[in-house]
Amino acid sequence: MLTPMVDRRDLQQRLDDLAHQYRVPGAAAGVLVGGRVEVVATGIAKLGTSVPVTTDSVFLLASLTKVWTATLVLQLVDEGLVDPSLPVNHYLDPSLRLANEEVARTVTVGQLLSHSGGFFGDAAEPNIRSDDAVEKIVDSYRDLVQLHRPGALFSYSNSGYNVLGRLVECVTGSTWDDALRTRLIEPLGLGSTSTLPEETMTRPLVVGHVPAAPGSHDLAPVSTWLDPRTSGPCGGTLAATPADLLAFARHHLENGLAPSGARLMSAETTRSMREPHVVQPDPSRGPAWGWGWSIEHLEPRVVGHIGSTCGQQSRLVLAPDHGVAICVMASGDVQGMGDKLVSELLEQLVGVGLPATPDPVEADVDVTPYVGRFRMSDEATIDVRAEASGLVASFTTSGRWADFHGDFSTPMTYAGGTTFLMTMPPVTDPVAATFLWEDGADGPATHLASQMRVAPRSEAFTRSWPRPGSSPDSV
Known about the structure:
Elements: H1 8-21, E1 26-33, E2 36-43, E3 59-60, H2 65-78, H3 101-106, H4 109-113, H5 133-139, H6 158-172, H7 176-185, H8 197-200, E4 209-211, E5 219-221, E6 239-240, H9 242-253, H10 267-272, E7 278-279, E8 288-289, E9 294-297, E10 302-309, E11 312-319, E12 324-331, H11 337-350, E13 372-377, E14 380-387, E15 390-397, H12 399-404, E16 408-414, E17 419-422, E18 431-436, E19 447-450, E20 453-456
Antiparallel strand pairs: 1-2, 1-12, 3-6, 4-5, 7-8, 8-9, 9-10, 10-11, 11-12, 13-14, 14-15, 15-16, 16-17, 17-18, 18-19, 19-20
């Protein structure tokens, strides 16, 4: 049975209403069903101006870029130039160097594609604009510590995807930007998609917005529109309109075909990106991660990705068996308006919404294995302690973490299994925090997983951490 298309007027009204409810300055949404596209927009491009957001406005894709980088890598797999099972250093020149030399020598392409490489994933991103920016950022990873053994756990990694971007450069002999342009942007006819600011600035831009102060619900425009070129492969520079993003989605729905009928990637390889490659422990995020794609539901298969950087947010989901793709792109969406709209549309068109944060569970729980200090980075530690009322997590922050959150404490409410709920200002909805054991469930939990990252117990490390460059809203 054919999936019916959404009504454009209804889509416009829903976007208008939700943007107003969530105090989002500007946003756009698009739906693709069976080759037909509807795109709507609402709001203004920047607070303090009257410039409207239109369907031709360009947004940063942020970490949605990772699916594009993964697609480039899988094209090279298709061409017999890359083997996902081989160490990534088989392809890199100069070689990847990490604090753990054995990991640098053995971590595989597939593990990086599925965010299971295990080394610290939010390294500093120096403002380098030259063509060797990606090479230089990867060269700076030599001090990145190991969070877990490669392949043992899932922990979202911007650093890992920059390494994959460098793989693309080494194998193709071009910059990541040029490879993306010649292998995807041009063959797919994406006339409003670019990575370089001198190209992007010729189009109508949406400016990002962030909290005016730590914990504030008031928003202010960002002072820097995009991230450095060093973060291109992981999601700092790629910008597009909703229509272009849906055209990229259609390429995946049609299993590697371009609008011209040319095959950019085999159907088998395209489908392999949507297969589970590692368990994702956060019950509010979906059960697994593929190569590039987050797997939101196994049956019916729904894959997607989110992104957030420089005060802009993006979300894309695909339901391949239904021929459906949905995207929302926004500025200043601190409270999750995009997730709300995408979930409603997915429920309407496919019959399932996005995975939801679990409800609290009444139970007597031995919290002893969860107590201790966990270290998210050199700028954020979490002290979990037991009080009469239950577990409490206290965050101590500095640097960019402090700019976004500041120090705070939050109750941890039991939600089943080893998952608890906590609140991280300025977001008012609870987020899941799941305790993990790298070597089996005996003794104290070895990691705390939240917001797609794992934080190991701080005593696991004796050396200092590199100073991270990504704020907690960089996804």
